[in-house]
């Protein structure tokens, strides 16, 4: 379930970042730059969270890699 939510959030975020990046150079403000940084950090956070939960589940089930 977490992977599905993570992928949906990531796809939506990438779409938003694409629209902002296509407007790059057209009166880009600090607000836009901070928004991009926040979205990229959100993607990394979801990836790390999913990786951490997956590893904990594998350890709990005795299938540590």
From TrEMBL:
The chain crosses the membrane at residues 33-54. The keyword Transmembrane applies. Keywords: Membrane, Transmembrane, Transmembrane helix. This is Uncharacterized protein.
């Amino acid at each position: 379930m977490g992977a599905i939510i993570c992928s949906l959030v990531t796809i939506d975020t990438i779409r938003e970042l694409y629209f902002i990046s296509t407007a790059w150079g057209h009166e880009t403000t600090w607000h836009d730059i901070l928004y991009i940084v926040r979205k990229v950090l959100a993607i990394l956070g979801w990836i790390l969270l999913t990786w951490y939960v997956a590893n904990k589940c594998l350890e709990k089930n005795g299938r540590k890699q």
